[in-house]
Protein backbone atom coordinates (compact mmCIF):
# COMPACT_ATOMS: atom_id res chain seq x y z
CA UNK A 1 0.00 0.00 0.00
CA UNK A 2 1.44 3.31 -1.07
CA UNK A 3 0.76 6.54 0.79
CA UNK A 4 1.06 9.94 -0.75
CA UNK A 5 2.16 12.95 1.19
CA UNK A 6 0.85 16.34 0.20
CA UNK A 7 3.73 18.74 0.04
CA UNK A 8 2.91 22.36 -0.40
CA UNK A 9 5.19 24.46 -2.51
CA UNK A 10 5.77 28.15 -1.89
CA UNK A 11 3.94 28.87 -5.16
CA UNK A 12 0.78 27.33 -3.65
CA UNK A 13 0.60 30.30 -1.27
CA UNK A 14 0.90 32.90 -4.03
CA UNK A 15 -2.87 33.60 -4.32
CA UNK A 16 -3.07 34.25 -0.58
CA UNK A 17 -0.10 36.60 -0.72
CA UNK A 18 -1.59 38.44 -3.70
CA UNK A 19 -4.91 38.88 -1.88
CA UNK A 20 -3.13 40.10 1.26
CA UNK A 21 -1.06 42.56 -0.78
CA UNK A 22 -4.16 43.83 -2.59
CA UNK A 23 -6.02 44.36 0.69
CA UNK A 24 -3.04 46.10 2.28
CA UNK A 25 -2.61 48.26 -0.84
CA UNK A 26 -6.27 49.28 -0.74
CA UNK A 27 -6.04 50.26 2.93
CA UNK A 28 -2.92 52.33 2.34
CA UNK A 29 -4.46 53.94 -0.75
CA UNK A 30 -7.67 54.81 1.12
CA UNK A 31 -5.79 56.32 4.06
CA UNK A 32 -3.51 58.41 1.86
CA UNK A 33 -6.32 59.52 -0.48
CA UNK A 34 -8.62 60.65 2.34
CA UNK A 35 -5.77 62.47 4.04
CA UNK A 36 -4.79 64.28 0.84
CA UNK A 37 -8.33 65.06 -0.40
CA UNK A 38 -10.07 65.81 2.90
CA UNK A 39 -10.54 69.31 4.30
CA UNK A 40 -7.92 70.59 6.71
CA UNK A 41 -9.83 73.12 8.81
CA UNK A 42 -8.93 73.16 12.48
CA UNK A 43 -10.65 75.22 15.16
CA UNK A 44 -11.32 75.17 18.89
CA UNK A 45 -14.99 74.38 18.33
CA UNK A 46 -14.24 71.50 15.97
CA UNK A 47 -11.65 70.04 18.36
CA UNK A 48 -13.90 70.31 21.45
CA UNK A 49 -15.41 67.15 22.96
CA UNK A 50 -19.20 66.99 22.96
CA UNK A 51 -21.91 64.37 23.25
CA UNK A 52 -25.15 64.79 21.28
CA UNK A 53 -24.77 68.55 21.29
CA UNK A 54 -24.54 68.72 25.09
CA UNK A 55 -21.42 70.20 26.59
CA UNK A 56 -19.36 67.70 28.60
CA UNK A 57 -19.38 68.26 32.35
CA UNK A 58 -17.47 66.31 35.00
CA UNK A 59 -14.99 63.49 34.93
CA UNK A 60 -15.19 60.79 32.26
CA UNK A 61 -13.77 58.25 34.71
CA UNK A 62 -16.96 57.64 36.68
CA UNK A 63 -17.13 54.22 38.32
CA UNK A 64 -19.21 51.63 36.52
CA UNK A 65 -20.68 48.53 38.12
CA UNK A 66 -18.62 45.39 37.58
CA UNK A 67 -21.84 43.54 36.66
CA UNK A 68 -21.91 45.43 33.38
CA UNK A 69 -18.44 44.14 32.50
CA UNK A 70 -19.24 40.63 33.74
CA UNK A 71 -22.31 40.49 31.51
CA UNK A 72 -20.26 41.63 28.51
CA UNK A 73 -17.48 39.11 29.18
CA UNK A 74 -19.95 36.28 29.70
CA UNK A 75 -21.69 37.16 26.45
CA UNK A 76 -18.39 37.01 24.60
CA UNK A 77 -17.47 33.67 26.19
CA UNK A 78 -20.78 32.02 25.37
CA UNK A 79 -20.82 33.61 21.94
CA UNK A 80 -17.39 32.18 21.16
CA UNK A 81 -18.63 28.72 22.10
CA UNK A 82 -20.76 28.77 18.95
CA UNK A 83 -17.60 29.28 16.90
CA UNK A 84 -16.33 25.94 18.22
CA UNK A 85 -19.66 24.17 17.87
CA UNK A 86 -20.36 25.12 14.25
CA UNK A 87 -17.50 23.14 12.62
CA UNK A 88 -18.33 20.21 14.89
CA UNK A 89 -21.95 20.23 13.74
CA UNK A 90 -20.98 20.53 10.08
CA UNK A 91 -18.54 17.59 10.25
CA UNK A 92 -20.53 15.44 12.67
CA UNK A 93 -21.63 12.83 10.12
CA UNK A 94 -18.11 12.07 8.93
CA UNK A 95 -16.44 12.03 12.35
CA UNK A 96 -19.24 11.23 14.78
CA UNK A 97 -17.32 8.65 16.80
CA UNK A 98 -14.19 10.80 17.07
CA UNK A 99 -15.78 14.16 17.83
CA UNK A 100 -18.67 13.22 20.10
CA UNK A 101 -16.87 12.69 23.41
CA UNK A 102 -14.69 15.83 23.18
CA UNK A 103 -17.80 17.91 22.45
CA UNK A 104 -19.65 16.39 25.40
CA UNK A 105 -16.70 17.31 27.65
CA UNK A 106 -16.59 20.82 26.16
CA UNK A 107 -20.31 21.34 26.73
CA UNK A 108 -20.07 19.93 30.27
CA UNK A 109 -17.37 22.48 31.12
CA UNK A 110 -19.47 25.28 29.63
CA UNK A 111 -22.58 24.17 31.50
CA UNK A 112 -20.59 23.98 34.73
CA UNK A 113 -19.50 27.59 34.16
CA UNK A 114 -23.06 28.61 33.36
CA UNK A 115 -24.33 26.90 36.52
CA UNK A 116 -21.66 28.76 38.53
CA UNK A 117 -22.84 32.07 37.00
CA UNK A 118 -26.43 31.37 37.95
CA UNK A 119 -25.48 30.39 41.52
CA UNK A 120 -23.40 33.55 41.94
CA UNK A 121 -26.30 35.68 40.65
CA UNK A 122 -24.21 37.37 37.99
CA UNK A 123 -27.06 37.43 35.47
CA UNK A 124 -29.46 39.24 37.83
Give the tags.
NADH-quinone oxidoreductase subunit, 2 strands, flat, two-stranded antiparallel sheet, cell membrane, quinone, 124 residues, membrane, mainly alpha, 4 helices
Short description, anyone?
The chain is mainly alpha-helical and 124 residues long. The protein is 63% helix and 3% strand. A hairpin with a 2-residue loop joins strand 1 and strand 2 (54-55).
Structure overview:
By secondary structure, this protein is mostly helical. It has a domain at 12-37 and 65-120. It contains 4 helices and 2 strands, in the order ααββαα. It has a two-stranded antiparallel ribbon with strand order 1-2. A hairpin with a 2-residue loop joins strand 1 (50-51) and strand 2. The mean pLDDT is 82.
Q: Tell me the structural class.
A: mainly alpha
The termini sit apart by 62 Å
Backbone shape: flat
As residue ranges, the low-confidence spans are none
Helix/strand order: HHEEHH
Number of strands: 2
Q: Any idea what the radius of gyration is?
A: 26 Å
Transmembrane segments: 16-37, 68-89, 95-116
Main location: membrane
Pfam families: Oxidored_q4
Keywords: Cell membrane, Membrane, NAD, Quinone, Translocase, Transmembrane, Transmembrane helix, Transport
Amino acid sequence: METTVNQYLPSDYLPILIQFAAALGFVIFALVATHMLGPKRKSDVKGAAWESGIESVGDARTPVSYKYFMTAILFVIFDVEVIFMYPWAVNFREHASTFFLPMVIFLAILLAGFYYEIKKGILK
